[in-house]
From TrEMBL:
Keywords: ATP-binding, DNA-binding, Nucleotide-binding, Transcription, Transcription regulation
Transmembrane segments: none
Name assigned to this protein: Regulatory protein, Fis family
SMART domains the record matches: AAA
PROSITE patterns per record: SIGMA54_INTERACT_1 (PS00675), SIGMA54_INTERACT_2 (PS00676), SIGMA54_INTERACT_3 (PS00688), SIGMA54_INTERACT_4 (PS50045)
Molecular function via GO: ATP binding; sequence-specific DNA binding
UniProt xrefs under InterPro entries: AAA+_ATPase (IPR003593), AAA_lid_NorR (IPR058031), Homeodomain-like_sf (IPR009057), HTH_Fis (IPR002197), P-loop_NTPase (IPR027417), Sigma_54_int (IPR002078), Sigma_54_int_dom_ATP-bd_1 (IPR025662), Sigma_54_int_dom_ATP-bd_2 (IPR025943)
Gene Ontology biological process terms, A to Z: regulation of DNA-templated transcription
Pfam family membership, one: HTH_8
Domain Sigma-54 factor interaction, first and last residues per copy: 8-237
Species for this entry: Humidesulfovibrio mexicanus
Length: 338
């Protein structure tokens, strides 16, 4: 059967090695730990594991362990009984029960509190869970796949992650290489994203000029695929085209290529290059106030993530908000990925 890698773009030697492991591991029920830097597309790889498994027609249930407060995460994972805590007005199954027969994806497992790690370990060992406020256990048949951008062995050494849980999760390790190690994939991804964004915005397709292509390939992409995707969306909006030239690229890509960005003539002072959005802008887009402000906020979120190379703590600091607030906003817009 041909490997289903829908959504994963690229055929570089580094990615082909990942495909080889995926083909061997997917049909099994072994627990898998996917590692890789933020923005490399770990969730896409995990979804491919599920699609190519014997459980493909069963539920795939993801949960971001870093996006849910620790006092609520246990209930989200294992469910709760009526009256287990304030506002528990009815019993509710958790993600493990919802994934019964299929795959549960524990994203950002390195963010999980030590007290909860014990219960995950039990679920892996005994294949059973206990709801919050419950008095009995329930058997669950799930394949567990976890992902992290942290060095879990380092976290174990520092006492922040249980050693026994690490070895339970790390039965089959899979590492997704950073974009800088996938050279020939950069242009395939850039053209894919650019084509898609131009279609979404009903604008004429842009092409990448030779110099711009060389600069994109030469850039390190600290924010990986997510950063590249954000840049392509920006180009689809701001580039006057039809060809993307070096001066159209973000300043940090120009500087990385040894090109000094051309200063904006109007920006003689920090304020002169800035213009407040006007009512006309909203009308031109055919949007209401809420949609207009949502689009502005989403762009700022994406820019902060790109500037912070996908590190959420830094992005939150750039925006002047709490990390939990940032994660809530990203989750609301389906921008939260691995």
């Amino acid at each position: 059967m041909a490997l289903n890698i829908d959504g994963i773009i690229g055929n570089s030697p580094a990615l082909r090695e990942v495909y080889k492991v995926l083909e061997k591991v997917a049909p099994t029920d072994s627990t898998v730990l996917v590692t890789g830097e933020s923005g490399t597309g770990k969730e896409l790889l995990v979804r491919a594991l599920h699609k190519n498994s014997k459980r493909a027609d069963k539920p795939f249930v993801p949960i971001n362990c870093g996006a849910i407060p620790k006092e609520l995460l246990e209930s989200e994972l294992f469910g709760h009984e009526k009256g287990a805590f304030t506002h528990a007005i009815r019993s509710r199954p958790g993600r493990f029960e919802l994934a019964d027969g299929g795959t549960i994806f524990l994203d950002e497992i390195g963010e999980m509190d030590l007290s909860l790690q014990v219960k995950i370990l039990r679920a892996l060992q005994e294949k059973e869970i206990e709801r919050v406020g419950g008095t009995g256990t329930k058997k669950v048949d799930v394949r567990v796949v976890a992902a992290t951008n942290r060095d879990l062995e380092g976290e174990v050494a520092a006492g922040r992650f249980r050693e026994d849980l690490f070895y339970r999760l790390n039965v089959i390790p899979m590492h997704l290489p950073p974009l800088r190690e996938r050279g020939e994939d950069i242009m395939a991804l850039a053209e894919h994203f650019l084509k898609g964004f131009c279609q979404d915005k009903d604008r004429k397709q842009l092409s990448l000029g030779a110099q711009a292509r060389a600069m994109l390939i030469g850039y390190d992409w600290p924010g990986n695929v997510r950063e590249l995707e954000n840049f392509m969306e920006r180009l689809s909006i701001l580039c006057e085209g039809p060809h993307v030239m070096p001066e159209d690229l973000p300043e940090k890509i120009q500087r990385a290529a040894g090109v000094e960005p051309t200063p904006v003539a109007a920006a003689e002072s920090p304020q002169q290059g800035f213009r407040w959005p006007e009512l006309k802008d909203m009308r031109d887009k055919g949007q209401g106030l809420k949609e207009f402000l949502d689009e502005i906020e989403e762009r700022l979120l994406q820019e902060a993530l790109a500037e912070a190379s996908g590190v959420k703590n830094q992005a939150a600091e750039l925006l002047g908000i709490k990390r939990t607030t940032l994660i809530e906003k990203l989750k609301k817009r389906n921008l939260l990925d691995s």
